[in-house]
Amino acid sequence: MDRFENVTVIKAANVYFDGKVTSRTVIFNNGEKKTLGIMMPGDYEFGTADKELMEILAGKLEVLLPEKTEWIQVTGGESFEVPANASFKLKVTEISDYCCSYIKE
User: Fold this and answer.
1) What does the alpha-carbon distance between residue 101 and residue 94 come to, in Å, rounded to a whole number?
2) How far apart are CA 93 and CA 105, in angstroms?
3) What structural domains does the chain harbor?
C-alpha cells in the first residue's frame, strides 16, 4: 500500500534525537495508529509500549532486536517487528524513510 485514505493526520511532528528522527502520526477510522517518518544517519535506541512493525520504505540501517546479539541489516522494502514493552537499537547508515505500525495485542 503506497497511500492511506480517509485518515486523520496529527499536524504536530514527533521529534527525537535533536531532530535527527521525525515522524507524523496517522490515525485510521478503526483507531489503528501508524507513524510516517525520516531517520537521519546515526545511532538510536527506542522503547516500545505496543508491538511495532517497522517498514523501511527507503534507506539502509542495522537493527539490534531485544535479547539478540547480532545486528540485522534492513534496506528499503524490508521490515522488522519489535515486541511490546521492549527496546531496540538502530544504526542508520543512509537517510531512511519509514512507516511504523502499532499493534495492540
Assistant:
1) 21
2) 32
3) 7-103 (2.60.120.10)
Estimate to the nearest angstrom the gap between the alpha carbon of 44 and the chain centroid: 12
Summarize pLDDT for 39-50 with one digit per residue, the tens.
999 999 999 999
- Give tens-digit pLDDT for 36-84: 999 999 999 999 999 999 999 999 999 999 999 999 999 999 999 999 9
- Give the C-alpha separation, 73 to 1, whole Å: 23
Alpha-carbon torsion, ordered 46, 52, 53, 58, to 10 deg: -30
| 90 and 61 Cβ atoms separated by less than 8 Å | yes
